[in-house]
Amino acid sequence: MNSFYHCCGIEYPVEYDEHAKRLARYRKAREKTQKDRESFFAASITGTN
């Protein structure tokens, strides 16, 4: 497990940056929501909802 993550070319220790973890979780959840929405629209267009 890498204890550092990169932000804007700067390395931060993860354990000091809970905000970054929350941001990453939020971004992941938003991407999942976007994928679900796209697959929902694709299904409704093809009529296999």
Structure description:
It is built from one helix and two strands; from the N terminus they run E-E-H. It has 49 residues and is an alpha+beta fold. The chain has a domain at 18-49. The protein has a two-stranded antiparallel sheet with strand order 1-2. Strand 1 and strand 2 form a beta hairpin. It is rod-shaped, with a radius of gyration of 17 Å. The model has no long low-confidence stretch (mean pLDDT 74).
* Low-pLDDT regions: none
Q: In order across it, which strands form the biggest sheet?
A: 1-2
Helix content: 55-70%
| Global Rg | 17 Å
Shape: rod-shaped
Strand count, sense and barrel status of the largest sheet are:
2 strands, antiparallel
- The total count of helices amounts to 1
Distance between the termini: 40 Å
Run of helices and strands? EEH
Chain oligomer state: single chain
Mean pLDDT level: 74
Strand-residue proportion: 15-25%
Q: How many strand segments?
A: 2
Coarse structural class: alpha+beta
